[in-house]
Amino acid sequence: MAQVIANSGHDDMIAHPKYGNILASSSYDGKVLIWREQSSQWQKVADFALHSASVNIVSWSPHESGCLLACASSDGSVSVLEFMEGNWKHQVFPAHGQGVNAVSWAPAVAPGSLVSSKPELGAVRRFVTGGSDCLVKIWDWNREQNTYTPTLTLSGHTGWVRDVAWAPTILQKSYIASASQDKTVRIWTSDPGHPNQWKSTVLNFEAVLWRVSWSLSGNVLAVSGGDNKVSLWKENLKGEWDCVKWIEE
Prior knowledge:
Layout: E1 22-26, E2 32-38, E3 41-48, E4 55-60, E5 67-73, E6 77-84, E7 87-94, E8 100-105, E9 126-131, E10 136-142, E11 147-154, E12 161-166, E13 174-180, E14 184-190, E15 199-204, E16 209-214, E17 220-225, E18 229-235, E19 241-248
Antiparallel strand pairs: 1-2, 2-3, 4-5, 5-6, 6-7, 8-9, 9-10, 10-11, 12-13, 13-14, 14-15, 16-17, 17-18, 18-19
């Protein structure tokens, strides 16, 4: 049964349920709200006004990394909220000067570590952002500086990057999908032997693209665009991406 959160202050709520009964929402008012279900009712437990423009999307990290929430804003910055030892703390840093449209966390386990003789210790804290500057950026937690720093910038799009999605697969390769107003999706691929080298495969469409989303297994990519169509894509044995299904409204 669906529940409506009354008087949320957010006309356009983006909620991500994690950790059982906790969810987050964001909106054009520049705020991020944290909600918790208590006695079958959703109660606001935290209110963050860290941005000067719309917060376009919020994304919870994998639970292995901790209780972390990344927030992408049109003011050009990203904030990361962390709940630890009963308190919330936050960091805000510039990401894309013309606005941040999307953010997505990497798996907490490094690719290939499950089959490696020297697995990486500790959970990985890494995410990807897409902006109105047509760029895709990868961010890593820097323990020495105690903040997130951009470690790689991926270029190639000629229009706003509307969405990014880091595939949840942790077997061998890392995959990032980016959707753009230039009517292309780029699938960026990296292997554990060359973690800072990303090659891209371009998928061309006839309409601007809004969203990309991976299946839970990380081997099927869904793409939606301005033509009200959804397409499903899968990598074949040759490393090429085939459209396996179109879904029209």
